[in-house]
Amino acid sequence: RGEEGLKVIMMCEVPSNAILAEQFLEFFDGFSIGSNDLTQLTLGLDRDSGMELLAADFDERDPAVTALISQAIQA
Fold first, then answer.
1. Start-to-end C-alpha separation, the chain
2. 36 contacts 10 by C-beta, under 8 angstroms
3. Please, are residues 75 and 22 in contact by the beta-carbon 8 Å criterion?
4. What is the predicted pLDDT for the residue at 11?
5. Residues 71, 21: contact at Cβ < 8 Å?
6. PEP-utilising enzyme C-terminal domain: from which residue to which, for each copy (predicted)?
7. Contact 72, 18 (CB under 8 A)
8. pLDDT in the model for residue 44
9. pTM to 2 decimals?
10. Is residue 32 within a helix (H) or strand (E), and if so which, with residue range?
11. Are strands 30-33 and 9-12 parallel, antiparallel or unpaired?
12. Residue 31: enclosing H or E segment and its boundaries?
């Protein structure tokens, strides 16, 4: 795809990246999953709220997060 066989990889960090993974892969060679950002945005958390207050809610094993990661991988 890129010059001299360079692969173009997209960061999958927001839920829409995983939901529309097949469409994005028409333009990119693969994904690198940014699980911290993906988790925050999927669970409605933000960096400004103080992660120490939200640490109990921040769980990359949450079913919604793992479903999006699986969806991106399967694309």
1. 18
2. no
3. yes
4. 97
5. yes
6. 4-74
7. yes
8. 85
9. 0.81
10. strand 30-33
11. parallel
12. strand 30-33
Helix (H, G, I), strand (E, B) or coil at 14: coil
Alpha helical stretches, state H, 1-75: 15-19, 21-24, 35-43, 51-54, 63-74
- What are the beta bridge partners of residue 30? 9
Q: What are the C-alpha distances in Å from 2 to residues 17, 29, 63?
A: 21, 9, 35
pLDDT at 2: 72
Does residue 10 sit in helix, strand or coil?
strand
Q: What is the DSSP letter of 61?
A: T
pLDDT in tens, the chain (75 residues): 678 889 999 999 999 999 999 999 999 999 999 998 999 899 888 767 666 666 667 788 999 999 999 999 999
Q: Where are the domains of the chain?
A: 3-74
Structure tokens that stand for 15 in this block? 């839920």
